[in-house]
Amino acid sequence: MTNLELEKTANEVRKSIVTAVHSAKAGHPGGSLSAADIFTYLYFEELNIDPKNPKMADRDRFVLSKGHTAPGLYAVLAERGFFPKEDLVTLRHTGSYLQGHPDMKHIPGIDMSSGSLGQGLSAAAGMAAAGKFDKKDYRVYALCGDGEIQEGQIWEAAMWAGFRKLDNLVVIVDNNNLQIDGTVDEVCSPYPIDKKFEAFNFHTIDINGNDFDEIRAAFKEARETKGMPTAIIAKTVKGKGVSFMENAVDWHGKAPNDAEYEIAMKDLEKVGEALCQK
């Protein structure tokens, strides 16, 4: 896809995120919206996957380590054809397969159940190691939050992955600088993130995670990096695309009411109209 096509798709993903969270009356819109461009690039460009065969043996794997941003992952899975978009409005409803956090047993396209922060990178490193042991060509991607990397298990996994030279593993850190209690540098600063991953024998790339030129170049560089895993530190805007959610810590984990939903959708419609003029 061209970058313009990716931008249009990401905007549809953002509409689905807001719609799902509004319908659920709960959820995490801020971090889902900040990562929407990364989700879109992964599922429409980067990953070797087949919506008609979600368990394809040689598929690339994706682990959403910051599992609370499931609305973003569900939105892109639906956009890619893994399940009907109409089902997104059942998010978090009793009896729905679209739970508040990813569930690999019930949701097509989910490779790892997640939600307990800090654990996803360990699972991804294990998947990458299994690929090496089995001499398979699949690659493994994990998306972590910048607040999440305050968890110690992240660094245990990074140390092991770097030591094992897992060059089929890519860690993306969604660096929107906000977590539930405030800015990450005020709660418990993980900065400089790139230097920390470098200390664990990672190749690191710093990008604007809301710019498809930079996203595309980073994943290309990661593919070409041999002998060590890659960490992409993606600077993003929390709540990206919705005027009153952007860079607002309050929108880490709450749903818009009906009036706010209307404003949010109008914001995203304007973005879509502007993209159509390009």
TrEMBL record:
What the entry lists under Pfam families is as follows: Transketolase_N (PF00456)
Name the cofactor(s) required for activity, per the record: thiamine diphosphate
Give all residue intervals belonging to the Transketolase N-terminal domain: 8-262
**Which positions are tagged coiled coil?**
none
The enzyme's first-digit EC class, named in words, is transferase
In the record, what terms sit under GO molecular function?
transketolase activity
Keywords from the UniProt entry: Thiamine pyrophosphate, Transferase
Q: What is its EC number?
A: 2.2.1.1
Q: What protein family does this chain belong to?
A: Belongs to the transketolase family.
Q: Under which name does UniProt file this protein?
A: Transketolase 1
Q: Which organism is it from?
A: Roseburia intestinalis L1-82
> Per UniProt, what is the name of the gene that codes for the protein in this document?
tktA
